[in-house]
Each structure stands twice: as structure tokens, then as C-alpha cells.
Design a protein that fits this description.
With 304 residues, the chain is of the alpha/beta class. It is built from 14 helices and 10 strands.
């Protein structure tokens, strides 16, 4: 947290090129503080520090003072960043939050979805035990502890957890050496396709997301995705997932009672092929094309 403060408050203004730069693009509102607003594009991924400060992760949710400082800093940054020439939201939900909480006129916010890797495609899983997987940060906001708790009380054969984060040690302690639960650490880019295709079910027990790209990546590999029904995830993403009230109901008593058909029914409740087609719309070429349009707006030119 301190290093990011120093980067955005001190390093950016010292390193920011000033001459012969026609367009600046801040990937977060904090990075837009020092940019010349009339020449800038800013991307908003979410407004969690304003809309849900009690659900923050990355250590902020555990520390009262870090939460207070982080939230105030974020509020300051977004109120500066909203003055950029072009404001971009990564989802329709983030756009609505920008309109509601920052007062930005709706027609002044562009929605540009992020892309995913082109090589994310389904490959045969082959024989092997039923495997549940998660990939993402290991922190409070992702609620991986709920997945581990439910899995430990069930009888499914394997859970693989990819990613790192501030809660990694506590989550490993919670797993208690259960041989069915494996922590893989950071998944290298070259192994991402194999990771998703090794799964039968991708579970993403997050509290809230600005979009949720791991969900899209799993769908690009034709994997069913399960979320908790109380998750705050953009509806355009959430409606394509299996929604459950409690993971324990899926991995706990139902499976312990031998009612495997309950889980089987859930897996067949989503349209895998339609989800695949939708996921493959998230191309970086399409994202880049839309950002080029934003840059041209800053420059005051129109594409032929």
C-alpha cells in the first residue's frame, strides 16, 4: 500500500513525460492525478472504496486505518480523474456507479471491456478425478475460505487453488494439510490454458468484482462457473454462472448424502456453448480498437 502511494503521489509527477505527448492513458484513477486532463483517458475498473469499503481485500479490509486512508485517497483521486477528457468503465455496472456516485453524465462514460488471451480454448480434460478450481488473489474480498470450508466437509476428490495474496498462509492453515486441497501459487501465463482445461468446475466465491476476467477465461475454455448468489458482480457476467446460496450445500451435505446428481444438475444448468461464444468476444484487438477511438477523441480527429 505504501509503495503504491509513493508511486502515484511522488514517482509519477517526477517521471511523467511532458514534451511531445499527445495522449495520456491512466489505467486507474490514482494514476490520473497528475495527468493533463484535456489530453487524458482514464479507466475505472470499480468504485469499491466508495460503494463497499467494508468488503475490501489486499489487507485494507483488516486494518481500520489503512481502510480510512485508502478510501479517502481513492475518493480524492476519482474526483480528480473524472475530469479527464475521456472516462472509461470496464462494465455497465461500473458505468452506473460513476454516474450515481461521481455525478458523471451517462453519455460521457464509455464502456470498454478488457480482453482475454486468444489461446484460451477448450482442450480434452481426459480421464481423472472430478476437479474443482479457483484462480485469483488470495485475500478477504475473494472469500476463498468459504470454498475451502465447504470442500473440507464434502467428499469431492480434488480442489486446486491458483494465485497468491496476503491471506495465503491463513488459507493454507485452514486447509489443514488436507491432501485433496492443493495450492499452486502463481499460474504462469504459459500454463493458464492447461490450468483451466484441467478442471471440471471453476468456482469463484468473490464478494465483489468490477468485471471478473477469470470467469470469462474459464468460459472461454468451456468450463461451468459457480458464484455465490450474494456476489456483487456485473449482471452481464453473473447471469451466465451457476449461482448458489451456500457452497456447503453443493460440496457438503448433498455430496455426503451421495446425491451426486444434484451437482450434475447444476453443471448442466448453464449454456456452455453460448458462454463460450460470449467469452470469445473479449478480444484484445477489439479492446484496442475501442481505445484507439478514445485516443482519437482526445486528439479531436475522426477515423476514416
Amino acid at each position: 500500500m505504501y509503495s503504491y502511494f509513493s508511486y502515484t503521489l511522488a514517482e509519477i509527477p517526477l517521471r511523467l513525460p511532458r514534451k511531445e505527448v499527445q495522449v495520456y492513458h491512466a489505467l486507474t484513477p490514482m494514476e490520473a492525478i497528475w495527468l493533463p486532463k484535456r489530453k487524458s483517458v482514464v479507466t475505472f475498473h470499480d468504485l469499491f472504496q466508495i460503494t463497499a469499503p467494508n468488503k475490501l481485500g489486499s489487507g485494507l479490509g483488516y486494518n481500520k486505518w489503512k481502510n480510512i486512508v485508502g478510501t479517502r485517497y481513492f475518493r480524492y483521486a476519482v474526483n480528480v480523474a473524472k475530469r479527464c477528457k475521456v472516462v472509461v468503465a470496464v462494465s455497465e455496472q461500473t458505468k452506473e456507479d460513476l454516474v450515481t456516485f461521481l455525478g458523471i453524465p451517462r453519455d460521457e462514460v464509455r464502456v470498454i471491456r478488457s480482453g482475454i488471451r486468444d489461446d484460451l480454448e477448450p482442450t480434452p480434460k481426459g480421464d481423472g478425478p472430478f476437479k474443482v478450481g479457483y484462480l485469483g488473489q488470495l485475500d478477504r474480498r475473494k472469500r476463498v475460505h468459504l470454498l475451502i470450508d465447504a470442500f473440507k466437509r464434502g467428499d469431492l476428490p480434488e480442489l486446486v487453488i491458483g494465485g497468491t495474496g496476503v491471506d495465503e498462509a491463513s488459507l493454507k492453515a485452514q486447509a489443514g494439510g488436507d491432501p485433496r486441497i492443493k495450492f499452486l501459487g502463481r499460474i504462469p501465463d504459459g500454463e493458464l490454458v492447461d490450468f483451466y482445461n484441467s478442471l471440471d468446475l471453476f468456482v469463484f466465491p468473490t464478494w465483489l468484482e468490477g468485471y471478473g476476467l477469470p470467469i470469462v477465461e474459464a468460459m472461454a475454455c468451456k468450463k461451468p462457473v459457480m458464484l455465490l448468489g450474494d456476489a456483487e458482480v456485473p449482471w452481464e457476467v453473473m447471469k451466465r454462472c451457476i449461482l448458489v446460496r451456500d457452497l456447503y450445500l453443493v460440496f457438503g451435505p448433498k455430496m455426503l448424502a451421495g446425491e451426486e446428481k444434484y451437482l450434475e444438475g447444476l453443471l448442466h444448468s448453464v449454456d456452455i456453448e453460448d458462454n463460450y461464444r460470449w467469452a470469445k468476444e473479449h478480444t484484445w484487438s477489439r479492446t484496442l480498437d475501442k481505445y484507439l477511438e478514445a485516443y482519437e477523441e482526445v486528439l479531436g480527429v475522426r477515423r476514416k
